[in-house]
């Protein structure tokens, strides 16, 4: 039996929750923005085939692909649980640009691990899966953060909680909002974008950070869109990372002047996101970003909604 799992793009940090908030997104035109992994029984040894638009951006040796590490981690977990495994052929359809700020590595990790779990008829529960996903994401970015893998796996808007038995909780999101995601077509590695951040923050920024995040979470629970987007300001990463994003400041100023509810960096960038509550306005801003924010022919812009489903098995 072969299984195929799709894992969607995500917008980590959401400006106010560095390493603590993440939103799964899906284009309104139904483009599959995310990675696909299929798992089937092998004739011989374990193998990994990589296809898709961004396959050539990944290391050529299968052992250097994070999906291969996922297979090893999953097999170890099966052995620890006293369960037998088979040799498998894995195919990764790499539809996501690498180093994009759209949770590309998380898409591969989540699709691979969820695909393997589906192949073995859901041997592991959600928490065990999330822990493995976090471990694989940390291997790539150099530090443990769940703000891509949690929304990518579970869907919706996720808040990382300081309890390793829970890891992530769903927050109520704003169903009438559109998220315009503009990927300029250049690469910014998450590791490098973490290295530009300061070791210490001043008291003023610390206080703003706590107040913005708390106000945002409160506004989500009360479905107070005005408060939620008024406090969506990043004092932790954006001031230091925007130097890595050509044209970011100019685009941000323009989009805010045109009535966007909020503008920010998606994950560690270079993708920029802006929020609107009218689809027509979102489409207009998407056209402007297409003409003014993209740097190479690999760039794209999508008008998205929240993806409530997260990782899902696709039928043939
Ligand atoms: N399947 C994979 N998907 C994405 N990146 C991968 C994968 N396998 C290995 N990598 C490597 O991991 C790194 C991912 O970089 P990162 O900046 O974390 O990407 P992103 O921010 O898009 O998740 C790159 O060096 C890339 O070559
Ligand atoms: N919280 C992380 C998120 C990285 O997201 P990515 O999509 O750029 O991998 C960070 O900001 O470093």
From TrEMBL:
<feature type="domain" description="GHMP kinase C-terminal">
    <location>
        <begin position="238"/>
        <end position="291"/>
    </location>
</feature>
<dbReference type="Pfam" id="PF08544">
    <property type="entry name" value="GHMP_kinases_C"/>
</dbReference>
<keyword id="KW-0067">ATP-binding</keyword>
<keyword id="KW-0791">Threonine biosynthesis</keyword>
<dbReference type="Pfam" id="PF00288">
    <property type="entry name" value="GHMP_kinases_N"/>
</dbReference>
<keyword id="KW-0808">Transferase</keyword>
<dbReference type="InterPro" id="IPR036554">
    <property type="entry name" value="GHMP_kinase_C_sf"/>
</dbReference>
<dbReference type="InterPro" id="IPR020568">
    <property type="entry name" value="Ribosomal_Su5_D2-typ_SF"/>
</dbReference>
<dbReference type="InterPro" id="IPR013750">
    <property type="entry name" value="GHMP_kinase_C_dom"/>
</dbReference>
<dbReference type="GO" id="GO:0004413">
    <property type="term" value="F:homoserine kinase activity"/>
</dbReference>
<dbReference type="InterPro" id="IPR014721">
    <property type="entry name" value="Ribsml_uS5_D2-typ_fold_subgr"/>
</dbReference>
<dbReference type="InterPro" id="IPR006203">
    <property type="entry name" value="GHMP_knse_ATP-bd_CS"/>
</dbReference>
<comment type="function">
    <text>Catalyzes the ATP-dependent phosphorylation of L-homoserine to L-homoserine phosphate.</text>
</comment>
<keyword id="KW-0547">Nucleotide-binding</keyword>
<keyword id="KW-0028">Amino-acid biosynthesis</keyword>
<keyword id="KW-0418">Kinase</keyword>
<protein>
    <recommendedName>
        <fullName>Homoserine kinase</fullName>
        <ecNumber>2.7.1.39</ecNumber>
    </recommendedName>
</protein>
<comment type="pathway">
    <text>Amino-acid biosynthesis; L-threonine biosynthesis; L-threonine from L-aspartate: step 4/5.</text>
</comment>
<comment type="similarity">
    <text>Belongs to the GHMP kinase family. Homoserine kinase subfamily.</text>
</comment>
<dbReference type="InterPro" id="IPR000870">
    <property type="entry name" value="Homoserine_kinase"/>
</dbReference>
<keyword id="KW-0963">Cytoplasm</keyword>
<feature type="domain" description="GHMP kinase N-terminal">
    <location>
        <begin position="65"/>
        <end position="156"/>
    </location>
</feature>
<dbReference type="InterPro" id="IPR006204">
    <property type="entry name" value="GHMP_kinase_N_dom"/>
</dbReference>
<feature type="binding site">
    <location>
        <begin position="97"/>
        <end position="107"/>
    </location>
    <ligand>
        <name>ATP</name>
    </ligand>
</feature>
